[in-house]
């Protein structure tokens, strides 16, 4: 496989793994939001619209994967021979870290949906917890960008 093909494969892997994590994370949180809203409707309580912020939180990890994908694709014609393997490896592991962050952010978002709907309290605390999980994805993206910058 040529270096260019490995770089493209790394870029696709990064976006794919990030996006898969976002899909799983938003799916978990969305299912919890629907269940929480159902409980509210059954109890004749207002259904909190705020739950959508927990549902949507994991989607940003797809953007991080897309940013890395564009940086990787920009290296296709400008890197030294042998750079394909490091870019491929960076794409796989950065995408995995970002995707797992999205998955677990969605799991935390699901718990936040349940708690917010039941108590109508703690929104900023729940959002802060989701932000901490998001930080893992930001770190993975930034450190991958630094590593990719070292590939000449």
Low-confidence regions: none
The number of domains: 1
Into which percent range does the helicity of residues fall?
Answer: over 70%
Looking at the structure, the CATH topology is: Four Helix Bundle (Hemerythrin (Met), subunit A)
Multimerization status: single chain
Order of helices and strands: HHHHH
In angstroms, what separates the terminal alpha carbons?
19 Å
Largest sheet features: none
Broad CATH class: Mainly Alpha
CATH homologous superfamily (4th level) name: lithium bound rotor ring of v- atpase
Give a written overview of the molecule:
The chain has 152 residues and is mostly helical. It has a single domain (3-149), classed as lithium bound rotor ring of v- atpase (Four Helix Bundle (Hemerythrin (Met), subunit A)), CATH 1.20.120. 81% of the residues lie in helices and 0% in strands. Helix 3 runs parallel beside helix 5 (123-149).
Topology (SSEs and partners):
Layout: H1 3-42, H2 51-56, H3 60-73, H4 84-119, H5 123-149
Helix pairs in contact: 1-3, 1-4, 3-4, 3-5, 4-5
Supply the key terms.
single chain, 152 residues, mainly alpha, Four Helix Bundle (Hemerythrin (Met), subunit A), 5 helices
Brief synopsis:
The chain has 152 residues and is an all-alpha fold. The protein is built from 5 helices and no strands. It is elongated and about 65 Å long.
């Amino acid at each position: 496989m040529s270096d260019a093909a490995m770089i493209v494969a790394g870029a696709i892997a990064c976006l794919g793994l990030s996006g898969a994590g976002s899909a799983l994370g938003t799916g978990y949180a969305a299912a919890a939001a629907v269940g929480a809203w159902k409980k509210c409707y059954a109890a004749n309580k207002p259904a909190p619209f705020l739950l959508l912020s927990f549902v949507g939180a994991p989607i940003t990890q797809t953007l991080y994967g897309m940013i890395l994908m564009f940086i990787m694709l920009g290296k296709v014609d400008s890197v030294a021979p042998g750079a394909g393997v490091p870019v491929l490896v960076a794409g796989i592991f950065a995408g995995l870290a970002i995707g797992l962050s999205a998955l677990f952010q969605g799991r935390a978002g699901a718990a936040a949906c349940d708690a917010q709907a039941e108590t109508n309290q703690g929104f900023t605390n729940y959002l802060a917890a989701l932000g901490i999980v998001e930080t893992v994805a930001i770190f993975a993206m930034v450190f991958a960008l630094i590593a990719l910058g070292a590939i000449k």
